[in-house]
Design goal:
With about 325 residues, the protein is of the alpha+beta class. Helices cover about 30% and strands about 25% of the residues.
Amino acid sequence: MLYINTKTDALKDCGFYFGLEEYLIKDFKAKEDIFLLWNVVPTVMIGRHQVTSIEIDQSYVDQNNIEIVRRNSGGGAVYTDTGCLQFSFITDKISHKDIFTSHIKHIVETVNKLGLKAEFTGRNDILHEGRKFSGNAEFIHKDKMVIHGTILFNSNLDNLIGSLTPDKAKLTKHAITSVKARVLNIQSLVNMDLDSFYDFVVNEIKTKVIELNTLDLNLINKYSEKFRTEEWNYGKNPKFDIEKSVKFDSGNFVFRVEVKQNKVQNMKITGDYFSLKKIQDFENAFIGVPFTYDDFVKVTKTFKVKEYIYKLRTKEFLGVFFEQKKRRISK
């Protein structure tokens, strides 16, 4: 396994490493598989096919200086920071039966040598006694494949749950109070710091080493540019439609919203409610508006919900599309 040593270089942003992955599958020639191990500043990595505004709490990530970067790979949104390691395997083997296990086994076996009971389970996760510390994703370019994943070592779990607000049930039924029951920082199980753990993992997996600065850094940085643009990270959302049926005291509603490029294209509100003003004016007020909680709030300050729909509260309307503001996480 050819390890590309990025450890001695200054901390890079996530875009750099995604650019490095592109360079390694498009331009770098190697006879063996490639292994990377890296970490970055606080970042939410969005899956290639996800809608950014649905996956994150924009206010939270802004307030906590968390970067947003879309991956080339599919899968779900992932939070990472300097207390978390990312690994990448780059291989020619795109025809094997299971796209993950042939390489994820290197991480599982390495972690288990420290006395843990890690196992690869489900679609793409690594667990220790039922608690997740690693999720993985992949993408294919021609005859090359990148498998990359996360190792929670000493990550900020408050930021993890705060930034990935859309469906906290993905973590646990009572995620706000018991996120630690489902995810795990493995530093709590090993007697070493992150630096020592990094070296241990590399020494277990590598067979050959080359230095990052021997590669074409200009080309890597060129590939990295797209991962730093708003168009890539927010504008590459697939078109999607929302249809939700909801019953409130004010009536039975069906809300239909069409979103493209993260902006509302159309909104229709049907049901047995009573309208106080022309409902089309209220619906049209959202056309062209970014599909975010804060932008919807701005519209409702001018086009007040209660002035258009009898007895419907603003909080109820916003709650149809966005999770309400978070409660404080119990330690």
